[in-house]
C-alpha cells in the first residue's frame, strides 16, 4: 500500500516563494516610478496595483496603505546601499582599521545620496513634504535609520579606543553623515552629480577631519 504524501499541493491561486518575491519587487519598482514621475499625492493604491499587473487585494495583503508602500521603497534603497558594509564587517572588531571602516561607510552614504533613484525620491519628499506629512516622516525615518547604523559603528570604535574624544555618539553620527552625504545629495538634486573622483576626495577629507576631531592620532 502506497503511503499518501502529507505535502499539500499548491492551489491555482497560490504563488511560489519566488513568484511572491518577484511580485513584491514589481510592486516597489512600479510604486517608485509612479511616485517620482507623478508625485506621491496623485498616486493611488489602485494605480500601483494596476500598473504592476496585480489586483488591489493582492497589494493590500502586503501594504496597509500608500505610506507603507513608500516606506518599503525608501528602505529598499537604504538596504541596497548599506548591504556591502554589513556583509563585509569582520567578526572581530579589533581587526578593523578605523579609517578604512569609516571611509567605506562614508562612500556608501555618498553614493546612495547621489544615486539617480535616491535623488528622485528626495525631490519628491522635498517638493511635497509640507502638504503630505507621510513624506516628511519618511525622510526623518530614513535619516534616523542611517544615524543608528553609523552611531553603532562609532560606539564600537570608541570602545576599542580608536576614537578617544568621540562626543555624543548620535550627534557625531549626524555630523558624519552630513559631512559625507550632503554635497552629493545636493548636487544630485540639482542634476549635476559629483564625479566619482570628486566623491572619493570629499569622503576621504571628511573622514580625516572627523577622525582628527575625535582624537584619532
TrEMBL record:
Keywords noted in UniProt: DNA-binding
Coiled-coil intervals, chain numbering: none
Domain (HTH tetR-type): residue spans on this chain: 21-81
Region Disordered: start-end pairs: 1-22
InterPro entries, A to Z: Homeodomain-like_sf, HTH-type_TetR-like_transc_reg, HTH_TetR, TetR_C_Proteobacteria
MF GO annotations: DNA-binding transcription factor activity; transcription cis-regulatory region binding
DNA-binding annotation, residue ranges on this chain: 44-63
A Pfam family it matches: TetR_C_7
Source domain of life: Bacteria
Gene3D superfamilies: Homeodomain-like, Tetracycline Repressor, domain 2
Name of protein: TetR/AcrR family transcriptional regulator
Species of origin: Aminobacter anthyllidis
